[in-house]
Specification:
The protein is of the alpha+beta class and 232 residues long. It contains nine helices and eight strands. The strands form three sheets. A four-stranded mixed sheet has the order 2-1-5-6, sandwiched between helices. Strand 7 and strand 8 form a beta hairpin. The longest helix has 18 residues. It is globular, with a radius of gyration of 21 Å. InterPro entries: DSBA-like_thioredoxin_dom, Thioredoxin-like_sf. GO terms for molecular function: isomerase activity; oxidoreductase activity. It holds the Pfam family DSBA.
Length: 232
């Protein structure tokens, strides 16, 4: 069963949603049959990758919030994060263009490390206050994940994987995705937002039962033929 997840590195609800989804998946007997594919989505592609802003200033400039509204919002999200076991340090978080981070995610996908890299990027941005558009930082993150640093630097300094990032965002638009996180479950159902663990668990079970699980045979198997002959 394939799960496609659109998210952005600087989306706090994507970080929370990832952990809720993974907690739900661990409860399911078919968890090893689930393939997760992370898809790129940019909340603000207009940001300059050479510049950073703090979260409160960004919310004031981008959303038109007052400083009190901005502080209240980040405090509320931080409280939600703590309930999931996540540390949000918005006073450290550097808001910037996440396109380079998405390129690294696609490289990580090539090496079978996309979920691990997604987690590392979330923690880097929200907990440790790292610049997720900085080439040298991203190269060091790749190296820690076992990816050759020269390959990572080549990807980040060229147009390699640019098409894949843009294609993910085009697919999001085609699917009517306007906010993240957004989960498409085996091409049949969708879940949007950082839903509670129970919602993810129920949605995954229903999707599996309807699209993957074998049919339930309600008959007594009589009056039929198989490779060994016929029964009455």
């Amino acid at each position: 069963m394939k799960i496609e997840i659109w998210s952005d590195v600087m989306c706090p609800f994507c970080y929370i949603g990832k952990h809720h989804f993974e907690a739900a998946l661990q409860k399911l007997p078919f968890k090893d049959e689930v393939e997760v594919e992370w898809k790129s989505f940019q909340l603000d592609p207009t940001l300059n990758p050479s510049e950073t802003k703090n979260t409160v200033s960004y919310l004031k400039d981008r959303k038109g919030f007052s400083e009190n509204q901005s502080v209240q919002m980040v405090n509320q999200v931080s409280k939600m994060g703590k309930g999931t076991g996540l540390d949000f340090n918005f006073d450290k978080a550097l808001v910037t263009n996440t396109f380079p981070a998405h390129k690294l995610l696609h490289l990580s996908k090539k090496h079978g490390q996309s979920s691990e890299m997604k987690e590392a990027l979330f923690a880097a941005h929200f907990t440790h206050g790292e610049n997720v558009a900085d080439t040298e930082f991203l190269v060091s993150l790749a190296e820690k994940s076992g990816i050759d640093k020269n390959e990572a630097r080549q990807v980040l300094s060229s147009d390699q994987f640019d098409h894949e990032v843009h294609q993910d965002m085009s697919d999001a638009q085609h699917n009517g995705i306007r906010s993240v996180p957004f989960f498409i479950l085996n091409g049949k159902y969708a879940v949007s937002g950082a839903q509670p663990v129970e919602i993810f668990e129920n949605a995954l079970r229903q999707t599996y039962e309807e699209t993957v699980a074998p049919f339930k045979d309600l008959s007594n198997n009589n009056n039929s033929c198989d490779t060994d002959g016929c029964s009455i």
